[in-house]
Amino acid sequence: GENVEQHPSTLSVQEGDSAVIKCTYSDSASNYFPWYKQELGKRPQLIIDIRSNVGEKKDQRIAVTLNKTAKHFSLHITETQPEDSAVYFCAASYSGGGADGLTFGKGTHLIIQP
Amino acid sequence: DAGITQSPRHKVTETGTPVTLRCHQTENHRYMYWYRQDPGHGLRLIHYSYGVKDTDKGEVSDGYSVSRSKTEDFLLTLESATSSQTSVYFCAISATVQEGEQYFGPGTRLTVT
Q: For residues B54 and B67, what is the distance between their CA atoms, to the nearest angstrom?
C-alpha cells in the first residue's frame, strides 16, 4: 500500500518568513495530493490540493509543488502570520478507480515566532 | 464546514464494552470514511463506504466494524473496546472519487479505561 513520509516534524519560523514542508510517497499510481491544516482541538481542514497532471498550484500565500518523477511534493507558505501556526498534514491517494481513502503523513507542527 | 456531525463528541468507556460512534452528513455524498488520529501517527483509515451497504476495510480495521444503512449515516462500532482504541475518531465525506476532496467532521474523543 501507499506510504507517505513527511518532514520536518516541527518547524519554527519567524513571522513574515517562508515555511516549506516536504512529503514523499511510495505508490506511483497515486494521483491526488491534498494538504490539511489542523488547529488544536479542531478538525483537519483542506487548504490546498494538487493532481498529478499539474506541477504547481498557488492560492494566495500558499503553494504546492509536485515532482512525479521523484514522488515528492511540498507545501510552501510565504509571509507567514501567527494564524498559520497549526499542524499540517500531507496525504496521497489514487482517485478515479475506487474510494480507498487518503494515506496521511504524520504531520508537521508549524510554529510562527513573533 | 461541510454538513457533517459526529456523536457523541466525547465518550469515556470501560474495557470490554461495546461502543458505537455515529457520523451524519447532510451533503448527500456517496463516500464516507472513518479515521483515527493518534499522536505520532497522523490519521489512519479504519473503514470506508462507497454506498449504502457497501463498505470495505482500511489500514487499521482490526477490532472495528461499520454499517451504512442510509446515505447520510455511517456507524463505527467497537465490539469490545480496548485501551489501544483510545483515540480521536474523525469521519470524512467525499462527493466523488474522481475529485478526491475529503471533508472532515468535528471528531469524537474516545477514552477507554
A: 8
CA distance B58 to A107: 20
B62-93 pLDDT tens trace: 999 999 999 999 999 999 999 999 999 999 99
Gap between the Cα atoms of A52 and A68, Å rounded: 7
- Closest chain B residue to A42, measured at CA: B106
Looking at the partner chain, which of B44, B56, B100 has a beta carbon nearest the beta carbon of A93?
Answer: B100
Is the separation of the CB atoms in B61 and B42 below 8 Å? no
User: Which residue among A51, A101, A107 places its CB closest to the CB of B45?
Assistant: A101
Report the DSSP pairing between strands A10-14 and A108-113.
Answer: parallel
| C-alpha torsion sign, points B78, B80, B84, B88 | positive
Do the Cβ atoms of A43 and B48 come within 8 Å?
no
- Extract the residue ranges of chain A whose pLDDT is less than 70: 95-99
Amino acid present at B66 = V
